[in-house]
Amino acid sequence: MGAGPQTADKWIMDTTLRPTTSGGFAGRTTARRVAAARRSLSDAQGCLPGIQECNHLAVLTAAGMYAGVALFSLIESLIPGKSQMPIASSFIDLAVAVLVLLFGRRTPRPALVVLGPLGVALVGYALAHAQGFGDCAVMYVWPMLWTAHFFGRRATAFVIAATGVVDALALNSALAGGGDTSRWIEVMVSMTAVAVVVRALTENNERLFLGLASEARTDPLTGLLNRRGLNERAEVELARARRDELPVSVIAFDIDHFKLINDQHGHDAGDRVLKLLGSMLSEQVRGSDIAARVGGEEFLVVLPGCDEQQATAAAERARLKMARVAIADVPNVTLSAGVATANEPAELEALTGQADCALYRAKQQGRNRTVLASREGSVQPSNRFSPLVRSNNCSRAQSSQSLA
User: Is 77 helix (H, G, I), strand (E, B) or coil?
Assistant: First the structure.
């Protein structure tokens, strides 16, 4: 994405809001929020949320699984009256366990999935060559559990099918061609039930994990990111802007006289105003933009790839649109905005500080206006953007004062 007239299209050109019966505006942002949460976690942690995406534990448990099967086979062979397992299968299991520990972490994830069917095959081999019947069929559950937990439904279904084929061949070989249909059905029903339950629990846990991660980064009232979510997403976008040598702009919005709205019209009315602004910002941001509620009535929008002129246009569009919208029982809701822009910014804090400073100046100069942090002095209102002020004369201490 390069800087230019098209980089702010979504902000500058899309001004259509769709009213709903609740007095707010319909949003098309649910999927985008989920995707943003996933992208944020992926960039911050190196893998998507959910345990199935992390190879480290999958490798350790796979090695433990193969070593455990080898140990089980040896113990089974030493117990009088139990089936004698072929010693070769135990050594093969131990060798696989060692190889997984040595090379598993560097192995691409799709390649690791073969460890499930391979484990089933080794269990079947041990059953087919065992002397006498024992409890070795229970070992099918180990690769079954491992695959169902760390991989998806297709891999789980494949391992179930592989177990059916391998166990049928093993029983046929062990019983000299006679087979044992009831034993096979018992094994397959048990293994399938285990795989289905484990897969369902794993998917449910991943949904809960993703939901909690999203909630921890999302403001529940407006649906925008909170400060934590903003910081995580902004770190990624700033790094991308530095890499691509793009400008980054920050707009700080504040609802004018918000305390008065709450006092005179009630907190429900105040919540409606917050939801409206959150919906409006959600509708206008592009995929790379970041909109967040960072305080009671304070909002921040980070615009990667937007220069000062484009960010000013975005701020003015939002401010003018908010002034035109009628909210039940709350007349004349206005916004103040501060805009700051930097080329290849090093960190978000400095840029938001400048935007906060400009916002404070907007409050000082009468509210319902946009102030730029880049220059001192005033710019006469134009027909397109009014009123618009430029100022750089503000301290961080001032910007931290109440802007209500």
Answer: helix
Grouping H, G, I as helix, E, B as strand and the rest as coil, residue 250 is: strand
Residue 265 forms part of a structural domain: yes
The per-residue pLDDT for range 266-299, each reduced to its tens digit, is 888 889 899 989 988 988 888 889 999 988 899 9
For residue 349, indicate whether it is catalytic. no
Residue 205 sits in the same domain as residue 323? no
Q: Determine the residue type at 76.
A: E
> How far apart are alpha carbons 66 and 100 in whole angstroms?
9
* Cis check: omega of the bond before 110, within 30 degrees of 0: no
Domain that residue 268 falls in: 219-399
Question: Which 8-state DSSP code applies to residue 303?
Answer: E
Domain total in the chain: 2
Residues 103 and 182 in one domain: yes
DSSP category for residue 218 = B
Q: pTM here?
A: 0.56
CA 331 to chain centre: 38
Dihedral angle over CA of 233, 238, 244, 248, nearest 10? 110
**135 located within any domain:** yes
Distance of CA 42 to the CA centre of its chain: 7
d(CA 295, CA 315) in angstroms, rounded, equals: 18
Instruction: Decide if 293 contacts 222 (C-beta within 8 A).
Output: yes
Catalytic residue among 297, 298, 316, 344: 297
Among 214, 230, 245, the domain boundary falls at 214
CB 322 within 8 A of CB 333: yes
The Cα 341–Cα 246 span in angstroms is 11
Phi, psi of 372 (to 5 degrees): -100, 140
Cα–Cα dist 388/163, whole Å: 72
pLDDT, tens digit (0-9, with 9 covering 90-100), for 12-52:
333 333 333 333 323 334 344 444 444 444 433 334 444 44
Clarify whether residues 163 and 265 are in a common domain. no
Strand pairing category for 370-372 and 335-343? parallel
* Residue 45 resides in a domain: no
My answer on whether 59 and 181 are in the same domain is yes
